[in-house]
Design goal:
Strand content: 25-35%
Oligomer: single chain
Number of domains: 2
InterPro entries: Alkaline_phosphatase_core_sf, Phosphodiest/P_Trfase
Protein name: Type I phosphodiesterase/nucleotide pyrophosphatase
Largest sheet: 7 strands, mixed
Helix content: 25-40%
Distance between the termini: 10 Å
Strand order of the largest sheet: 2-24-10-1-9-5-8
Structural class: alpha+beta
CATH superfamily of the largest domain: Alkaline Phosphatase, subunit A
GO molecular function, one term: hydrolase activity
Pfam families: Phosphodiest (PF01663)
CATH topology of the largest domain: Alkaline Phosphatase, subunit A
CATH class of the largest domain: Alpha Beta
Length: about 500
């Protein structure tokens, strides 16, 4: 790497809400983030992927491609080839229903090495092929070329009667993955200080410790990516909008990272900082009234449940990604699709039902129906050309001449297409109206105060902070960040 080329620290904050950021900054509670924004730039409306679920969004943030290409459709989905529900650990109950062995294998190994598309590269694979040194701290998506042993925590081995074994994984040149893997030395020793219920080291406190360790090495990484998950759990439980405790704690963590350089100006002289959310969250109405009971609404059809083996007498499977769900048709019957749409439209908590047929994408809502496809007609600000027919209110679209303007559902046409074109997507994708989530396999038993998953702006818009680099991004989407990051190494 040329001596005048800055190294990059790339931080992904799970459930980062722009209004929460603005609220806390206005109260003077975020000195580190305020400094980084003052010295750089803030985009308040970077558009997430759809569904707004962490595995899908972090896959885009690690590859720079849409769900169509990276092929990770959500937190919970149905694998048609293996005839089973894939769940990366949405809830403790689903963890048990799907089996601890299968869930751990999916999360630790299959997500990166079997299910993430092999036709695309991660940022680690791409930069290391060009001679750069990359490292990752607690990433969900970590695929690289160096072989490691993922050490499964003893408690999980014990629970599974030692049927769960250590795994060979492949990651970037530098990798710290909670209790599963740490570089040798004092960092490996320090992980023992963290108790099992702190997510086996996948938490902000240990992520910062590992980041400080990498920055303290004589040969520090050209790219150091860091995943910070704690904001998500707090926002789910308490307040997704103005979640002061989690953002003030995050700000202190970021300050301790900048302190590694002696002073903050020196940090920006030596590094580019990119900080982005994977998605945001929207507030739920209290209690179980927040649940749209789609399994009951579609009770006419026999449904595959988590942990059940596939049988030919099941009609559908409903995979909940909280404020969005996939419906897969396992046994098709004549008129089934039309009936499912009609049944779902009777539920006031449902927002959109989307599906693909005959080269068109269809959207049904209680505000009317809309269809669209790629082709000449109207264009959006991302360079996409669309043919659109039907009720524009279904996606809160406005047509100004040949231009498409988006309202409550940012970049909805492209995001729906990228979701449904994923080979692992359901036959239908269903979203909930603000305040609600969709019941199904993987849904929480007791909804909290916040959630995400849908196309709605509250779930979909995240802050993007770039500091230490003169370049800026215009109208950013999550899928644009990796290409921007690569440009810093040209």
């Amino acid at each position: 790497m040329p001596e005048n080329r800055k190294k990059v620290i790339y931080l992904v904050v799970d459930s980062f809400h722009p209004r929460a950021l603005e609220h806390c900054m206005a109260q003077g509670k975020l000195p580190t983030l305020s400094y980084l924004i003052q010295k750089g730039s803030l985009h308040k409306a970077c558009i997430s992927a759809f569904p707004t679920a962490t595995p899908t969004c972090t896959s885009t943030l690690a590859t720079g491609v849409s769900p169509t290409e990276h092929r990770i459709p959500g937190m919970v989905w149905y694998h048609r080839g293996e005839r089973r529900i894939v769940d990366y650990g949405s809830t403790w109950l689903s963890f048990i229903k799907n089996g601890i062995i299968q869930t751990v294998q999916d999360f630790v190994y299959n997500l990166n090495h079997k299910q993430l598309g092999w036709q695309i590269q991660t940022i680690y694979e791409n930069l290391e092929s060009k001679g750069y040194y990359t490292a990752a701290v607690n990433p969900l998506i970590y695929r690289g070329n160096k072989e490691y042993i993922a050490h499964i925590p003893f408690i999980l081995k014990l629970i599974t009667l030692f049927q769960l074994e250590d795994m060979t994984i492949y990651g970037p040149k530098g990798l710290s993955l909670g209790r599963t893997h740490q570089p040798p030395g004092d960092l490996r020793q320090s992980i023992k200080e963290f108790r099992y219920w702190r997510k086996f080291g996948i938490n902000d406190k240990f992520a910062v410790k590992a980041t400080q360790w990498f920055l303290g090495q004589q040969n520090s990484p050209d790219l150091l990516s860091v995943y910070l998950p704690d904001t998500d759990s707090i926002a789910h439980a308490k307040d997704p909008d103005c979640c002061e405790p989690c953002l003030t704690r995050l700000d202190k963590h970021l300050g301790s990272i900048l302190n590694c350089f002696g002073n903050w100006d020196k940090a920006l002289a030596e590094r580019v900082f990119i900080i982005v959310g994977d998605h945001a969250q929207s507030a739920l109405i209290p209690g179980k009234k927040a649940l749209a009971n789609v399994p009951e609404i579609l009770g006419l059809y026999s449904q595959l449940r988590a942990g059940e083996d596939f049988t030919h007498d099941k009609d559908i499977v409903i995979c909940s990604n909280e404020r969005m769900a996939y419906i897969y048709l396992l046994r098709y019957q004549r008129g089934m699709k039309e009936n499912i749409v009609a049944c779902l439209l009777k539920e006031k908590k449902i927002d959109q039902i989307v599906w693909k047929a005959d080269g068109w994408y269809h959207v049904a809502t209680d505000r009317g129906k809309l269809s669209f496809s790629m082709g000449t007609g109207h264009h959006d600000c991302y360079g996409n050309q669309w043919q659109v027919k039907g009720e524009k209110g279904a996606l809160d679209l406005k047509l100004d001449g040949e231009s498409i303007q988006y309202g409550d559902y940012p970049n909805a046409l492209e995001r729906i297409a990228q979701c449904l074109d994923n080979p692992h997507a359901g036959d239908f994708a269903v979203t909930a109206k603000p305040g609600f989530i969709i019941h199904g396999e993987g849904a929480p038993r007791w909804p909290g105060r916040g959630s995400h998953g849908s196309l709605y702006r509250e779930d979909s818009l995240v802050p993007l902070i770039i500091s230490g680099a003169p370049a800026k991004m215009e109208k950013p989407r999550l899928m644009d960040i990796v290409s921007f990051l690569k440009s810093l190494f040209l």
